[in-house]
Amino acid sequence: MKKTNLGVTTLVGAFAITAAYINLTGEENSFTSAPDEPLVASQTHEGDAQIERPQPIALEELNMEVTIPLHLHENEVATDGAESILSQDGVTSSQSNNQESVTAFYMTTEGNEITVVEIQEAITIEEIASWYEEGDVTFFDVEGYDALYDNGHGKVIHITTGEKIYTIGGTKVSDDVLYDIANQIEF
Which domain of life is it from (predicted)? Predict the structure, then answer.
């Protein structure tokens, strides 16, 4: 049976890396998690081409130091009026091919979703920019690290440190909220 691993460099543009791996045959896989439980996948395996899926791992068993904010609903986050982060809808962590990742899911008071992802992956900002249409991205830095903002495929910020990649996304939240979350990462 042939397997294909799309990996971070293909999926990070969707900003929900650990929660949105799909079967190449078009069949969906369901992922569930409670705030204190690792990601659990219900997989189907029909056809020859399948994606190698990350294995759930408890947050405390990760080898990497988690530096994304896991409690945004308890912190002050910039708002553009009344919108603020209401709740954390879960945290997932996984490991695949010696690569670890953590994803935190949040909901705003306006019902908008925000996803914050941290992945142990050495990748350049230029590689990330190549995933997007030219002109859809703006380059900037966060605490001296290369970053880009994509407004062409949804509101997404990517930051790379050379050892990790961070992705913050939310299609209906303000840019200020995304930038404020990016500045709360403890590099």
Answer: Bacteria
- The closest of 116, 147, 114, 128 to 18, measured between CA atoms, is 116
Q: What is the pLDDT of residues 101-110, one digit of tens each?
A: 999 999 988 8
Q: How far is CA 183 from CA 67, 96, 165, in A?
A: 11, 28, 14
Q: Tell whether pTM > 0.85.
A: no
Contact 22, 28 (CB under 8 A): yes
pLDDT band for position 80 (50/70/90)? low
How many domains are contained in the chain? Answer: 1
Neighbouring C-beta atoms of residue 119, cutoff 10 Å: 23
131 φψ region: left (φ > 0), alpha (ψ -120 to 50), beta (else): alpha
